[in-house]
Amino acid sequence: MTKIPDKQWLLDRVGAGRNAWRNSERPAQIDPVAPGEESVWDYPRPPELRGAMGPVRVEHAGQVIAKSDRALRVVETAGAPVYFVPPEDVVDGVLRETDYVTVCEWKGAAVHHDLVLPDARVEHAAFSYPEPLDDLDPNMARIAGWIAFYPARVDACFVGKEQVTPQPGGYYAGWVTSAIKGPIKGDPGTQSW
Questions:
Q1: pTM of this structure
Q2: Contact indicator for 164, 176 with CB cutoff of 8 Å
Q3: pLDDT digits (tens, 9 = 90+) for 8-63
Q4: Distance (Å, rounded) from C-alpha 4 to C-alpha 29?
Q5: Which member of 19, 137, 151, 193 lies 3.0 to 4.6 Å from 157 by CB, making a disulfide possible if both were Cys?
Q6: What is the distance between the alpha carbons of residues 160 and 153, in angstroms, rounded to a whole number?
């Protein structure tokens, strides 16, 4: 198992990043929201754990690699929801944990996973939080070990029957559906959001 920083060590270091968001900018124009839609500008910061908007499916190289009606999503101001799938809803043996670790000031240390299929390999296709920070929201502990896929790194991700669009910019793992309104951070010039 990949070594991740201790929770307390992380908490001692994320304060500045958390405080910086208090002064984050908002775009001049925010898309209007109709019934049944959600604005990323109505999502909270710190982020919050919510139920999925439908069953989810992840496909790559002609295979379904994850399918779940128990997925959860993390929503955060300015970003598209990130969907987390229970590990037992991912096809056994297709993910290989790497030694690549990233840190989110809200959720903690994420371990990245390569997707390995007989005819395809995708580096850092997914990630998980082995010990999510739960000091601001105890519910975050529910996603410990659950898998989040980057929709830009696999062939297709679906919520219900709708194929999602990856969050702009390539860095984030947000799943954009027609029900999500923005603008959504990720493109150049949105880093301060």
A1: 0.95
A2: yes
A3: 999 999 988 898 887 788 898 999 999 999 999 999 999 999 999 999 999 999 99
A4: 39
A5: 151
A6: 20
Closest alpha carbon to 143 in 61, 73, 191:
73
Confirm if 124 and 113 have CB atoms less than 8 A apart.
yes
CA distance 75 to 98: 26
Tokens representing 129 are 């939080």
The number of angstroms, rounded, from the C-alpha of 27 to the middle of its chain's C-alpha atoms is 22
Cβ partners under 8 Å of residue 3, min gap 6: none
Query: How far from 65 is each of 77, 80, 91, 138, 172, CA to CA, in Å?
Result: 29, 22, 5, 29, 20
Check if the beta carbon of residue 39 is closer than 8 Å to that of residue 181. yes
3-state secondary structure (DSSP) of residue 135 = coil
Whose CA is closest to 107, among 7, 38, 25, 193? 7
Q: Answer yes or no: are the C-beta atoms of 103 and 18 closer than 8 Å.
A: no
Alpha carbons 159 and 145: distance in angstroms, whole number: 21
